[in-house]
Amino acid sequence: MITAIVLIRAATDSIPETAQAIADIEGVAEVYSCAGDVDLVAIVRVAQHEELAQLIPDEINKVDGVLDTDTHIAFRSYSRRDTDAAFDSGVDEG
């Protein structure tokens, strides 16, 4: 599974509608509105790079209100959930 973080600048007057339209795109796992240099952050999960190459320019960038995107591909996850799963032996200690 390929995970990408897409930083999105959006038209200020349509951020909620833009965010929902992006969230409705297949392959987009989550969309967050945020403060700072970008307005929205989308987490995209797809099986192949070709899907990502199509999804960003042909779908996300064409959503009304999207002004610009900056895509970052994740190499490895360091979340607590992933770390716990890596060390889970499947034995219940309870």
From TrEMBL:
InterPro entries: Dimeric_a/b-barrel (IPR011008), Tscrpt_reg_AsnC/Lrp_C (IPR019887). SUPFAM superfamilies: Dimeric alpha+beta barrel. Residues 6-76 form the Transcription regulator AsnC/Lrp ligand binding domain. Gene3D superfamilies: 3.30.70.920. This is AsnC family protein. It comes from Actinokineospora alba.
